[in-house]
Amino acid sequence: VQLQASGGGLVQAGGSLRLSCAASGGTFSGYGVGWFRQAPGKEREFVASIRWSGGNTAYAGSAKGRFTISRDRAKNTVTLQMNMLKPEDTAVYYCAAGHPISSTYDNPRAYHHWGQGTLVTVSS
Q1: Rg of the chain in Å (alpha carbons)
Q2: Phi and psi for 54 in degrees, rounded to 5?
Q3: What are phi and psi of 109, to 5 degrees?
Q4: 3 state SS of 108
Q5: What strands, in cross-sheet order, belong to the sheet with 17-24?
Q6: Is residue 77 helix, strand or coil?
Q7: Cα–Cα distance for residue pair 46/3, rounded to 1 Å
Q8: Is the distance from CB of 64 to CB of 84 less than 8 angstroms?
Q9: Burial annotation 3-18 (CB, 10 A radius, 16+ → b, else e)
Q10: DSSP calls for 27-46
Q11: Ranges assigned E (strand) in 7-115
Q12: The dihedral of CA 5, 37, 88, 60: what is its sign?
């Protein structure tokens, strides 16, 4: 399955952005789908994930209360709604699909398919 991330851009602090991850060449069925981000000079970090089958979600502490991950079965997409954005949210955001277990949902190594990334820039 190939993933295409979109929706990044420049936004002021306190604003919102909606990222989308679309699958092609297959579906998300049976996968866990995660969003990760990587800021310049930093390691890639977990943001949020969702299990396609049951809809179970998980969030990094920095994302809780501000970001919402959801799935659209009809469109075969996963969306990350980001509200109350902060300058420290600036990063390239990647969507990924894999088969993480409960203890690895936040580990990039648990995901086999990656999108190309979309840049989110939050100005102060």
Answers
A1: 13
A2: -100, -15
A3: -70, -15
A4: helix
A5: 2-6, 17-24, 77-82, 67-72
A6: strand
A7: 17
A8: no
A9: bebebbeebeeeeebe
A10: --TT-EEEEEEE-TTS--EE
A11: 9-12, 17-24, 32-38, 45-51, 57-59, 67-72, 77-82, 91-98, 111-114
A12: positive
pLDDT in tens, the chain (124 residues): 999 999 999 999 999 999 999 999 999 999 999 999 999 999 999 999 999 998 999 999 999 999 999 999 999 999 999 999 999 999 999 999 999 888 889 999 999 999 999 999 999 9
105 SS3 class: coil
Those residues with Cβ within 8 angstroms of residue 77's Cβ, 6 or more apart along the chain or in another chain: 20, 21, 22, 23, 71
The distance of Cα 12 from the centroid of its chain, to the nearest Å, equals: 20
Give the separation between CA 42 and CA 48, rounded to whole angstroms.
Answer: 18
Q: Which of these, 65, 49, 43, lies nearest to 105 by C-alpha position?
A: 49
Q: Which two tokens stand for residue 45?
A: 């970090």
